[in-house]
Protein backbone atom coordinates (compact mmCIF):
# COMPACT_ATOMS: atom_id res chain seq x y z
CA UNK A 1 0.00 0.00 0.00
CA UNK A 2 1.52 3.29 -1.10
CA UNK A 3 0.55 5.97 1.44
CA UNK A 4 1.76 9.56 1.26
CA UNK A 5 3.65 11.06 4.19
CA UNK A 6 0.83 13.45 5.13
CA UNK A 7 -1.75 10.70 5.04
CA UNK A 8 0.53 8.45 7.12
CA UNK A 9 0.94 11.24 9.68
CA UNK A 10 -2.83 11.66 9.89
CA UNK A 11 -3.28 7.91 10.35
CA UNK A 12 -0.63 7.75 13.08
CA UNK A 13 -2.14 10.80 14.80
CA UNK A 14 -5.63 9.31 14.66
CA UNK A 15 -4.32 5.98 15.92
CA UNK A 16 -2.50 7.65 18.82
CA UNK A 17 -5.58 9.74 19.60
CA UNK A 18 -7.74 6.63 19.73
CA UNK A 19 -5.24 4.83 21.94
CA UNK A 20 -5.07 7.78 24.29
CA UNK A 21 -8.85 7.95 24.47
CA UNK A 22 -9.10 4.23 25.12
CA UNK A 23 -6.62 4.40 27.97
CA UNK A 24 -8.35 7.49 29.39
CA UNK A 25 -5.07 9.40 29.21
CA UNK A 26 -5.48 13.14 29.06
CA UNK A 27 -2.92 15.73 28.06
CA UNK A 28 -4.06 17.78 31.05
CA UNK A 29 -3.93 15.07 33.70
CA UNK A 30 -0.83 13.06 34.30
CA UNK A 31 -0.74 9.85 36.25
CA UNK A 32 1.66 9.69 39.16
CA UNK A 33 4.08 7.62 37.03
CA UNK A 34 4.29 10.23 34.26
CA UNK A 35 6.70 13.06 34.77
CA UNK A 36 6.89 16.18 32.64
CA UNK A 37 9.81 16.18 30.24
CA UNK A 38 12.70 18.65 30.44
CA UNK A 39 11.25 21.08 27.88
CA UNK A 40 7.85 21.15 29.60
CA UNK A 41 9.54 21.64 32.98
CA UNK A 42 11.64 24.52 31.63
CA UNK A 43 8.58 26.21 30.11
CA UNK A 44 6.68 25.87 33.39
CA UNK A 45 9.61 27.22 35.41
CA UNK A 46 10.25 30.22 33.15
CA UNK A 47 6.59 31.25 32.93
CA UNK A 48 6.14 30.83 36.70
CA UNK A 49 9.18 32.95 37.50
CA UNK A 50 8.43 35.71 35.04
CA UNK A 51 4.65 36.08 35.30
CA UNK A 52 3.92 34.87 38.86
CA UNK A 53 0.65 33.45 37.49
CA UNK A 54 -2.42 32.75 39.56
CA UNK A 55 -3.03 29.85 37.17
CA UNK A 56 -0.65 28.07 34.80
CA UNK A 57 -1.18 25.07 32.54
CA UNK A 58 1.59 23.76 30.31
CA UNK A 59 0.08 21.11 28.06
CA UNK A 60 2.28 18.95 25.87
CA UNK A 61 0.20 18.37 22.74
CA UNK A 62 2.98 16.68 20.78
CA UNK A 63 1.14 13.35 20.85
CA UNK A 64 -1.50 14.96 18.60
CA UNK A 65 1.07 15.42 15.81
CA UNK A 66 3.22 13.24 13.59
CA UNK A 67 6.23 13.13 15.90
CA UNK A 68 7.97 10.28 17.73
CA UNK A 69 6.45 9.17 21.06
CA UNK A 70 7.75 11.20 23.99
CA UNK A 71 8.40 14.30 21.86
CA UNK A 72 8.21 17.80 23.32
CA UNK A 73 7.57 19.90 20.23
CA UNK A 74 3.98 21.18 20.46
CA UNK A 75 2.63 22.95 23.54
CA UNK A 76 -0.36 24.91 24.73
CA UNK A 77 0.17 27.28 27.64
CA UNK A 78 -2.51 28.92 29.73
CA UNK A 79 -1.09 31.80 31.74
CA UNK A 80 -3.26 33.88 34.06
CA UNK A 81 -1.43 36.90 35.44
CA UNK A 82 -1.97 40.46 36.61
CA UNK A 83 0.90 41.40 34.27
CA UNK A 84 -1.56 41.15 31.36
CA UNK A 85 -3.83 43.91 32.70
CA UNK A 86 -4.30 46.66 30.10
CA UNK A 87 -2.24 44.76 27.50
CA UNK A 88 -3.54 43.81 24.05
CA UNK A 89 -3.60 40.11 23.17
CA UNK A 90 -0.73 40.51 20.68
CA UNK A 91 1.40 42.18 23.38
CA UNK A 92 0.61 39.34 25.82
CA UNK A 93 1.67 36.78 23.25
CA UNK A 94 4.87 38.70 22.56
CA UNK A 95 5.57 38.76 26.30
CA UNK A 96 5.18 34.97 26.53
CA UNK A 97 7.18 34.41 23.33
CA UNK A 98 9.95 36.64 24.71
CA UNK A 99 10.23 34.60 27.89
CA UNK A 100 10.32 31.36 25.87
CA UNK A 101 12.54 32.65 23.04
CA UNK A 102 15.24 30.02 23.60
CA UNK A 103 12.72 27.14 23.50
CA UNK A 104 11.02 28.56 20.41
CA UNK A 105 14.37 28.72 18.62
CA UNK A 106 15.14 25.16 19.67
CA UNK A 107 12.97 22.19 20.47
CA UNK A 108 9.51 23.81 20.39
CA UNK A 109 7.90 23.75 16.96
CA UNK A 110 4.47 25.15 17.92
CA UNK A 111 3.12 27.10 20.88
CA UNK A 112 -0.53 27.93 21.50
CA UNK A 113 -0.97 30.73 24.03
CA UNK A 114 -3.90 31.68 26.22
CA UNK A 115 -2.81 34.74 28.21
CA UNK A 116 -5.55 36.11 30.44
CA UNK A 117 -6.01 38.43 33.36
CA UNK A 118 -7.42 36.90 36.56
CA UNK A 119 -10.77 38.64 35.84
CA UNK A 120 -10.93 37.22 32.30
CA UNK A 121 -10.07 33.76 33.63
CA UNK A 122 -12.80 34.01 36.25
CA UNK A 123 -15.34 35.29 33.70
CA UNK A 124 -14.53 32.37 31.36
CA UNK A 125 -15.14 29.87 34.13
CA UNK A 126 -11.56 28.67 33.83
CA UNK A 127 -12.24 26.86 30.58
CA UNK A 128 -9.57 25.94 28.07
CA UNK A 129 -10.66 25.24 24.51
CA UNK A 130 -9.66 21.93 23.00
CA UNK A 131 -7.00 22.11 20.30
CA UNK A 132 -7.92 21.02 16.78
CA UNK A 133 -6.56 17.78 15.40
CA UNK A 134 -3.32 17.95 13.44
CA UNK A 135 -3.86 18.18 9.69
CA UNK A 136 -0.52 16.63 8.86
CA UNK A 137 1.32 19.63 7.46
CA UNK A 138 0.89 22.50 5.06
CA UNK A 139 -1.07 22.53 1.84
CA UNK A 140 -4.17 20.76 3.11
Automatic annotation (TrEMBL):
Which Pfam families does this chain map to?
A: BolA (PF01722)
Report the GO terms under cellular component.
iron-sulfur cluster assembly complex
Name the residues that span the membrane: none
Q: Per the record, which residues fall in region Disordered?
A: 117-140
**How would you summarize the oligomeric state and partners of this protein?**
Interacts with GLRX5.
Q: Which family does it belong to?
A: Belongs to the BolA/IbaG family.
Q: What does this protein do?
A: Acts as a mitochondrial iron-sulfur (Fe-S) cluster assembly factor that facilitates (Fe-S) cluster insertion into a subset of mitochondrial proteins. Probably acts together with the monothiol glutaredoxin GLRX5. May protect cells against oxidative stress.
Protein name per its UniProtKB record: BolA-like protein 1
Amino acid sequence: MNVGVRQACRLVTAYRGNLLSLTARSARTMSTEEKPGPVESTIREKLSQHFQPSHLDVINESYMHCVPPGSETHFKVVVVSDMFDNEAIIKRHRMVNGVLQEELEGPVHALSIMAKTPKQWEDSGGKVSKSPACRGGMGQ
